[in-house]
Specification:
Mean pLDDT: 88
Helix content: 40-55%
Strand order of the largest sheet: 6-9-11-10
Number of strands: 11
Largest sheet: 4 strands, mixed
Structural class: alpha/beta
Shape: globular
Number of helices: 11
Distance between the termini: 35 Å
Length: about 300
Amino acid sequence: LLSHEILTPMYCLFEYANKNNYCLQINPASEINPDHLTYFKFVGRVIAMALYHGKFIDNGFTLPFYKKMLKKPYNLQDLEHIDPEFYNSLVWVKDNNVEECGLDVVFSADYEVLGKLQTHELKPGGTDIPVTEENKGEYINLMVEWRLSNGVTDQTKAFLDGFNEVVPLQWLQYFDERELELMLCGMQEFDLDDWQRNTIYRGYSRASKQVTWFWQVVKSLDNEKRARLLQFITGTCRVPIGGFAELMGSNGPQRFCIEKVGGEKSLPRSHTCFNRLDLPAYKTYEILREKLMFAVEECEGFAQE
């Protein structure tokens, strides 16, 4: 009850990530409350107390927020579920030759504050440093860090200071962000009939053997591994109160989707902002299970988009 009250967006401390209605992130406008840092420190203590006593919080945070708690660096994929347009623009930079395209970009970011345009240098002298093929990797990393940290640095520090007073943050270093979410939010019992009933297919049909094998794998998993699978594909282990029919994507309601994409040697890939799994047409159940579980467990950096 307490976590439900203090995490509600109506107090302007937290906000929903994009149009996703069950993942929270710090609200950059929280300073509208002059005592907001004190409140964030209090929230950090409450969340830590819940973890220490094995109680689950009512609302979960975004995976990038859990990564910040674990002091893990962000990567480009962390942006997809938070800001898909910004993510796509950086993917374009990564996949194209910026010099051949004549892209006039420097190491700075423009943003608006109370109607006034502000410029943030991503590195000292950034407004005079052009982005080239050689340095665009650094540019992308700095832009991701800025986008996920802009306006929330002080609030995040206050939250972590409060958390650390109850549960030392170094105790969490043995876990990854997905495990931390499970520890804080708990694991729901998944209604597999509801999950299947509210899944759509592209390139496959309900009768396709790969689809049949996929659901056989899901049914064979324990609840923790089902939660990890759901995290891999949707970005969270939580299902809305109304079930899988109310899953949200970056642009509103977005049902769970399995699409036929990729060659037999490829791993399954996920698109978390679309709740979509790219599943190659593997020839056997054993290969599908092996590839899928490897992708879920080792998704950091290459099997997730």
